[in-house]
Amino acid sequence: MTYEHFAVLIVIVPLMSAFAVALLGWFKRWACYPLTLAALFVSFICSLGILNTVISKGTIHYHFGGWEPPWGIEYVVDYLNGFMLVMLSFIALVVAIYSKRSIEQEIPEKIVPYYSIFLLLVAGLIGITVTGDLFNVFVFLEIASLAAYALIAVGEDGAPMAAFNYVIMGTVGACFYYLGIGYVYIVTGSLNMADLSQLLPNLYHNKAVLVGFALFTVGIAVKMGLFPLHVWLPDSYTYAPSVTSAVIAPMFTKVMAYLMVRIFFTLFKPYFSIDLIPITQILTWVAAGGIIAGSILAIAQTDLKRMLAYSSIANIGYIVLGIGLANRMGLTGSLLHILNHAFMKGTLFLVAGGIMYKMGMRDITQFRGLHKKMPFTMGTFTIAALSMIGIPPTGGFFSKFYLVLGAIDARQWAFIVVLLISSLLNAVYFFRIIENAYLEPPVTAYATDGGTHEEIKRDELPLSMLIPTLILAAGVVLLGIFNERIIAFIIRFAVPASF
Amino acid sequence: MFEYIVSKYNYWVYIFLMMLGLYGMIGKKNLVKKLIGMNIFQVAIILFYISIGSKVGASIPILTAEDLHGSANPLHYMNPLPHVLMLTAIVVGIATTGVALGIIIMVYNRYKTLAEDEILEIRKKSGV
Amino acid sequence: MKVFALLTVIITGVMLVYGAEDFPKWGDPNQPGSVHVAPRYTQGTYIEAGTPNIVTSVVADYRGYDTMGETTVIFTAGMACILMLRKKKRGEGESNV
What we know:
The complex is a heterotrimer of chains A (499), B (128) and C (97). Chain A has a domain at 278-499. Chain A is 77% helix and 2% strand. Chain A contains 21 helices and two strands. Chain A has helices at residues 6-27, 32-57, 79-106, 111-130, 134-153, 159-188, 193-199, 207-224, 233-239, 242-267, 270-276, 279-299, 304-325, 328-359, 370-373, 375-389, 395-409, 413-438, 444-448, 463-481, 483-494, and strands at residues 60-63, 74-77. The radius of gyration of chain A is 22 Å and the shape is globular. Chain C is built from five helices and no strands. Chain C is flat and about 55 Å long. Chain C has a domain at 34-85. The interface between A and C is large, with 50 and 41 residues.
């Protein structure tokens, strides 16, 4: 067996396990969880194998059915999607370990289909990342989207309505995307990304290509919840089951951000996206608006998950800002932030799920004294929050640092101001929670028996939930400490050479 | 000018249909009407792709007996690739519609109505 | 909302019409979409894939992986409906919808 088969196995193993979980689950419900873990573990090992192969032997090409690229479908893995794959499969694995107790509490009667769809979501997202064929991206995008709709819809009260809005917006996004494929196809006749990047330069002034590019951009922006098109995002993240938020928030929007980088700088040559049409400039301003608006709206929330959702919108702004700055430093910061934000948001949503599991509520004002009750959980929350604000040595500091460097390189001083303001706003809304949890006197003492101070008992999460949270939080710190190595060995090569 | 319009009339029709669908998705208040808009939207794109695949004077993409061994002239057969892509897209459209209808059933079970503004009112009253 | 919808529709429509300006004529046999990748399918279908039906050979062979994705989409939709709509069985008589 050669190494290039890893590129296929990483998708096929979770996909086939999804069928297996659905089948086996009708007979033995307990088997779903270990099977899911096993599949995601194999997937994670494959992703490590892929990254290792990419670093030692260069880009992996895998031709399905042996048909050479423009005719058949091709999987291409280079540095850019190599590191994305490791990140995706790792977070999926960690969240899956966490999921057991939370799902058993929130939707006990639906464990079997839940795990099946969970695996399909992961397979879909990984499939988008590895493929080198435009239409294949669409197919896997739909697998992932349908899975996401269903996973959100089974949440609490407002969830079905949130999921319906997501269906409508998501379909508009996906349809714009494949309409964009049509506009590119009609003037080139190819669907393969590598082939198209050879064909398209002669057609850069063709109006169909311009409109196709615009359609790609809008479609992906809808799917990733970029600021003016984010309306589906807050409700979906808020009402979804905890595990769903913890898997969709770090993974789905990041995959879409990856797709945007892929289309801007691989499918189209950088000089088209930057010089010929002002799309990157427009995107930077849109992103800056998103950063500010997301941060301000996050301050206004009292629901923890809704606050995190708005903070996601701000962070998608960071990523798109780095893409829009379109220079080496900016894009490095953007890719690093994809990685960092996935870990930070994963941690935060896992903590939110944990608080939901133990206390059954998400209202920030009721978090008083929580650090005595759940010291480790609040500790990880604090680490992730510090990273979101951007305090060294956590990962969040370094990605913001590179974004600032990118803004300096582009001589766009306004964006430095935006980044600083948003860091301050981040500090406001995270310290509010930390203050509530650590400094305010606990309310439960008054509530239970009229005034007598009662020592709060430690009531920590079960280990199967606590350990994944701790792993992700450790990841946040490690990403910060080893950021130079990650950039030197991987991200440096993921940025297009012409920058 | 007239020549130009006629030479691409398929594309104008698809754009018109698509805008109809898009308006339905954004402008209508009833969830099922939104869903119908979504279907029109998807069908319009299918029409667009099929239009790409057509060739004047060509026949369906099934080889005749004398063309089997590599002597086929591509001008005599429709372009098969858009048809293939649309087979996939049709299935995707159906699947999306199915999931959306499932969600609509959930919404109806919860609120006993499908009008968006009524649902919003109910949610405001219950404080969610 | 109505005005907003109308505005979106008009902007999108204008954009699409603008892009359609550079399309090849409808049904042009030599349009780029028909001469780059597709001729190989027409000529090779019987020799390489063993069926005279070109669409079949592309669906099931050249781009067979897309078709697997397509069936998975259907499976996802089915599982999604089970996940969303199946209710816990409470005693006998109640059907699970």
